[in-house]
Specification:
Blueprint lengths: L12 E5 L5 H11 L5 E5 L12 E5 L9 E6 L6 H8 L2 E9 L4 H11 L4 E4 L12 H12 L26 H4 L5
Parallel strand pairs: 1-5, 1-6, 2-3, 2-4, 4-5
């Protein structure tokens, strides 16, 4: 599968972490903050519940859109296929933002793998998801790290209480000290 090159600079291409039920509010906020720019919002074909103010243009995933025609592309949700994500990015002239719910992580991995790098993730005040609870395996790993002795830790005993190592006694036979002369 050949993917088109991404013309956007890394700093102009980012994910805004946002819980699913807050996406509509964040979308509206972003559109009004960027008033005066040409804005495209793209959603899945089956998602008809998204409201887009008249300051932006709404596209369904299957609609053909002009390449590089918009100053800001807002992707409401990650597509199922990495190729579709790159097709969406081609609509953006300068900036692309994706409203990203951490539940879509499996889709992101495929996109970042195809892109060959990670995509910058940012938190938007008031819209960020709650920190995820660590999985049982992550908890176990953390407990092992916490329990492991520190490499440069000093011993807890004081020198006066420390046991001195016993020196092995040398047993030398008298014959070895006074060899017989013949």
């Amino acid at each position: 599968m050949t993917l088109p090159p991404v013309a956007l600079k890394r700093k102009n291409h980012r994910l805004l972490l946002c819980e699913e039920h807050k996406k509509q509010d964040l979308l509206t906020k972003l559109i009004f903050e960027n008033a005066g720019r040409s804005i495209a919002v793209i959603v899945h074909d089956e998602d008809e519940s998204v409201y887009v103010p008249e300051e932006a243009t709404l596209f369904q995933e299957s609609e053909a859109a002009p390449e590089g025609a918009f100053d800001l592309l807002i992707t409401y949700d990650l597509p199922e296929e990495a190729q579709e994500y790159f097709n969406r990015l081609s609509m953006a002239k300068t900036d692309a933002v994706c409203l990203f719910d951490p539940a879509e992580q499996h889709r992101l991995l495929a996109i970042e793998t195809a892109l060959g790098r990670s995509i910058k993730q940012e938190y938007q005040e008031g819209y960020s998801p709650r920190p995820a609870q660590p999985s049982p395996s992550e908890k176990k790993t953390q407990r092992k790290k916490d329990a492991a002795p520190k490499k440069h830790a000093k011993p807890k005993t004081t020198p006066s209480k420390a046991k001195k190592p016993k020196r092995p006694m040398l047993r030398i036979k008298a014959e070895a000290l006074n060899p017989k002369k013949d």
